[in-house]
Amino acid sequence: MVKKVVIVGGGIAGIYVLRNLLARREEIEEGLDLTLLKRERSGWVSTCGLPFALRGWYEIKRTEINEPKFFLDQGVDFRTETEVTKLDLEARTVKIADGEELAYDYLVIATGREPSVPEAVANTELEGISTFNNEDDARKIEAAMEGATNAFVRGRGIIGLQAAVAFATKGLNTTVLGGPPSLLPGSLDPDMGDIVKKWLEEKHGIRFILARKEITGVKGENGRVKSVVIGDGEEIPADVVVIARGMRPNVGLAVDAGIATGDSGGIVTDGAMHVRRGRGYLRDVFALGDCTEVIDGITYRPRLSQLASTVVVQSKVVADNIISDIKGQPALYSISVPCLSPTVAEIGGLIVGSVGVTGEAATRAGIKTLSGTATKLVKARYFPGAKPLTMKLLFDAYSHKLIGAQMVGESTVAERVNELQMAIRAGMTAEEIRNTERCYDPSLSLLIDVTIDATEKAMGITPVY
Amino acid sequence: MVKKVVIVGGGIAGIYVLRNLLARREEIEEGLDLTLLKRERSGWVSTCGLPFALRGWYEIKRTEINEPKFFLDQGVDFRTETEVTKLDLEARTVKIADGEELAYDYLVIATGREPSVPEAVANTELEGISTFNNEDDARKIEAAMEGATNAFVRGRGIIGLQAAVAFATKGLNTTVLGGPPSLLPGSLDPDMGDIVKKWLEEKHGIRFILARKEITGVKGENGRVKSVVIGDGEEIPADVVVIARGMRPNVGLAVDAGIATGDSGGIVTDGAMHVRRGRGYLRDVFALGDCTEVIDGITYRPRLSQLASTVVVQSKVVADNIISDIKGQPALYSISVPCLSPTVAEIGGLIVGSVGVTGEAATRAGIKTLSGTATKLVKARYFPGAKPLTMKLLFDAYSHKLIGAQMVGESTVAERVNELQMAIRAGMTAEEIRNTERCYDPSLSLLIDVTIDATEKAMGITPVY
Fold first, then answer.
1. For position B1, what pLDDT does the model report?
2. Which one of A48, A81, B187, B392 is least enclosed by Cβ atoms within 10 Å?
3. Across-strand partners of B347?
4. How many CB contacts within 8 angstroms connect chain A with chain B?
5. What does DSSP say about strands B44-45 and B32-37: parallel, antiparallel, or unpaired?
């Protein structure tokens, strides 16, 4: 009999499970019936591309890689603007807002996340205030930017800063409110985060308020926001307000169905992405993406990851396990790996990267570290593109193994994050990294790279420049 | 008593040993007396930067990073234009051309390599013909380019191709003669080498003759070369001729002193870079760089590496061992690693990279491989710099471990070589690489990178694009 897979959620997580299953559909003789249910109107959207659209690099519609028709034409029951109201794991059905119940053989929960909106904003009817979670939000923000003079962003993570850069680029006076002491605390220690802050202040004129303050009020005119009030009364002019803080796993449906969540707030899964219910894991229910928690690759504690890149791996684990189960083959756990959250973001011309734990996260986990920071050009100074890069490396003080890397520079950051992730996964020690040959062409690299300098500094050796 | 170190050779190898020893000199209470003997007139030259100087990116003199004075001022007995005539390992002296004998406590052999010059060229007195091994050669070539119309390059390795690009950039009709079947055979399999050939033909108008032919004659006018004759009579116009083939280890002095060389022609060393003589290794004589052979990191067979990057690691091994020995500490073997020769080269706007074994080298060693090749943009197509990259990955068919990577593209190649070298050293399998998360920002990378596509192709899986 035809097997039915129902995917709840049409962000990157749901779409990538769908795409992986489509690619392997022909392996299943009895056929594979695929349904995807999503709230938004669109098909497959590159949400990570939205901040660049606001910056004017291209139109928002360009981020829609495939319209729903693309999936409908392949025989997928692809339903947009569809609200799921209940997951019934006993009846093995999914109920949607109009009352219809869809039966499933395999259920995939990819319900994503939602920002934590301050109370003062949640209850306003003023226009110009938006979260920044999907393309519908992007369109609202774009509309609010029209004729605006002042912008306000609540949140100092990647999305908040990318939104701020978009506003500043478009000439708006831009203020960012975030917690102390520094930017991007999930990826960068304060010393590194301060480099980003200085760049955004100097190159883009963005103003930062990093303090334990919250939005306590909003004021408007003709139904549009004109200012926000923070803390005990400071008023900041704002014609457009973006709320991009505290991205919480969207787990309501799962919790109602009795599925376990962890301390991080995310759905608990095993290595095959099966969800947990009571004492067992369900062979036919999977969860992935921003609504789930991952196992940290350094501390082995559960935490959130919420990166599109994490989803790409998880979607293969889900699809491979569904196919394997249909074929009567064993579950695949080994294809999943503890998460190192390799992160990269272009923020107003500066590229920020990190992988593994930060110094702060290591301290929280009780890990003693050796750390080294170095700044160096990425290639010989007489070649075009010879820009500086600052790298901070963290080694476990006991084993000398690399456990974290942070970078700020204008190029080569993404690739270095991938390289250092390999080094962390491989358990490379400072001594080994120091004596690892690196490829050299003076127009592309230095004979002694910043990685070596940072490593030697962590080892207490003075680098030969 | 002050310990005396004599370094023979002033290329990157000799200079980097010197620089590492200078950096650690203060650790030795009794003092360290440093001598470097070199043939050329210059101090520390970035020889890898010379081809770009010929292309007009900067003056040749810019490649001299430090003049001899820089080292003399630090108390180094830095002798240029000095020919060493004998190494006496019994007397522990080095004899130079004027008859002087310098005593040493530690001897470092860094005598480099020399191209194999065809007989027909070796004996000519015509001007305009040169090897391309150092800055003196570069000056000769630059002089010959003045007013020239036609250029001829013997050699299809990195140096030969970079010279050809320099000539073509300067408007010379350029012909390259090399062996069959394809370019850069040490780094690329024929399918990948052909991409480079096509690029150089189409973008730079370079003509290639890849055949088992040798230069059999040269013709001249007024003491200057006007053409070369190849094989049994084809005459090719040439006002400038560069010989850049068959780089042989320069081991005459070492062999005369009884030091062992291997099948590759290079000096044999152990992991601490001690040379072998008779049945033993000498604690006080080291060799490194282009004159030595390395242990291959995949086959564990000896071979040549001859990269500046190899020298950087070897120079630390030599310096650390000298310091360790002076201090009465044990020799350091573990800091040396089998060589994977991570290679990158910019060749006329195209960047070529490789690490580990090629398919050809694997076949020669009897290794059965799984290979996958994929071409993809390095980032989303609507971002500036979204250029294609072709990657070929080779996995050991038995263990599925990555053993080689080859790349051709316009960006991110150097960094990817470093990443994949980490993966090879770590013993990562195709399955592990496939399911390794990679950092993502659409302006910098794709959600599913070409590395994943190439890996999945090698595994027989159709990539989800």
1. 85
2. A81
3. B350
4. 210
5. unpaired
Both B146 and B201 in one domain: the answer is: yes
Claim to verify: residue B199 and residue B230 sit in the same structural domain: yes
Q: How many CB atoms lie within 10 A of CB B324?
A: 15
Q: What is the pLDDT of residue A335?
A: 78
- Work out the burial of residue A213: count CB atoms within 10 Å of its CB; fewer than 13 is exposed, 13-18 middle, 19 or more buried: middle
Residues A90, A127 within the same domain: no
CB contact under 8 A, A382 and B62: yes
Residues of chain A with C-beta less than 8 angstroms from the C-beta of B52: 383, 442-443
Q: Please say which residue of B216, B245, B274 terminates a domain.
A: B245
Q: What is the pLDDT of residues B122-141, one digit of tens each?
A: 989 999 999 999 989 999 99
Number of domains in chain B: 3
Quick one: A90 and A237 in the same domain?
no
CATH number of residue A394's parent domain: 3.30.390.30
Last residue of a domain, one of A210, A245, A280: A245
pTM higher than 0.80, yes or no?
A: yes
Inter-chain touch B439–A414, beta carbons under 8 Å:
yes
Q: Which residue of B has its CA nearest to A352?
A: B441
Whether residue A307 sits in one domain with residue A274: yes
Domain-located, residue A74: no
Contact state of A313 with B426 under an 8 Å Cβ cutoff: no
pLDDT tens digits for range B345-366? 999 999 999 999 999 999 999 9
Phi-psi region of A6 (alpha: psi -120 to 50; beta: other; left: phi over 0): beta
Determine, for residues B437 and A342 on separate chains, whether the beta-carbon distance falls below 8 Å: yes
Cα(A76)–Cα(A390) distance, integer angstroms: 47
Mutate to test the interface with B, among A296, A440, A447, A459 (most CBs of B within 10 A): A440
Given a cut of 90, is residue B3 above it in pLDDT? yes
Q: Nearest-5° angle of CA A52, CA A54, CA A57?
A: 50
At B361, give phi and psi (nearest 5°). Answer: -65, -35
Q: Do B439 and A346 touch (CB under 8 A)?
A: no
Are residues A294 and A370 located together in one domain of the fold?
no
HEC string of B317-333 equals: HHHHHHHHHHCCCCCCC
DSSP codes joined into one string, A319-350: HHHHHHHHTTPPP--TT---B---EEEEETTE
**DSSP character string of A164-207:** HHHHHHTT-EEEEEE-SS-S-TTT--HHHHHHHHHHHHHHH--E
Q: Which domain holds residue A162?
A: 117-245
How many Å apart are CA B370 and CA B423, to the nearest integer?
16
- The single-letter code of the amino acid at B170 is K
Q: Tokens 């002095």 label which residue?
A: B253
Do the domain assignments include residue B70? no
Looking at the structure, tell me whether residues A253 and A241 fall in a common domain.
no
The whole-number average pLDDT for the span B274-292 is 97
Is residue B253 within 8 Å of residue B86, measured between CB atoms? Answer: yes
Could you tell me if residue A169 is inside a domain? yes
Q: Which of B48, B340, B441 is opposite residue A441, by nearest beta carbon?
A: B48
Residue B382: band (very low, low, confident or very high) from pLDDT cuts 50, 70, 90: confident
Residues 6+ apart with CB under 8 A from A146: none
Mean pLDDT within A221-239 = 96
Instruction: Identify the CATH number of the domain in which residue B220 sits.
Output: 3.50.50.60
b/e for B150-166, b at 16 or more Cβ within 10 A? bbbbbbbbbbbbbbbbb
Is there a domain that residue B221 lies in?
yes
